[in-house]
Amino acid sequence: MSQLCMNRREAKRHQTALRLQECAVRLTIDRGFDGWTIDDLAAAADVSRRTVFNYFDGKAEVILGPEPDVDEEAMAAFVSGGPTGRLFDDLLVLAHEATREKADSERHIAAVRDAIMNDPHLLRLVHERFEMAAALLGDCIRRREGDDFPDEKVRLLLRLLMTCFDHALARLGEDASTTFTDHFDATVVDIRACLA
What highest taxon heads this organism's lineage (predicted)? Predict the structure, then answer.
């Protein structure tokens, strides 16, 4: 099959996934996470129920996307003390890796945040995801820094990282003309300035 055909197929698949996500966010904002079904989503996106499950495992994944995936090499570099040799800076590198290629639209990311912040069930699901990611990152920090690295510092680093994400999302809600990554980086600069 030609590269052009594959690119068109991939582009169509990408557009369908994005349409499903946008419809799911709209349904969640309008009805709440528990107020719509996969059948409702399929109808709103003008696809079959089967199509929805060809793209996503369930409602939470449609809204939140797949769980963040960090490249094994990036994780190995972190555990071995890299890439900068400064713990928090290296966590920021992992954060960039995990959020890379997340969404096509800054407005979509802001809408997802609004849906999450206004729905207790979705907020709980996000918290569960964060807890799993925090456990993984905490384990990587201990492998890097040693088992005697204090748990309090691990929790502090992870909360600081989460604060960066949350603040960047809030900034994005106010200014969707700037990318999430740029808002995230600006948040880190502001934190460093406050702590200087």
Answer: Bacteria
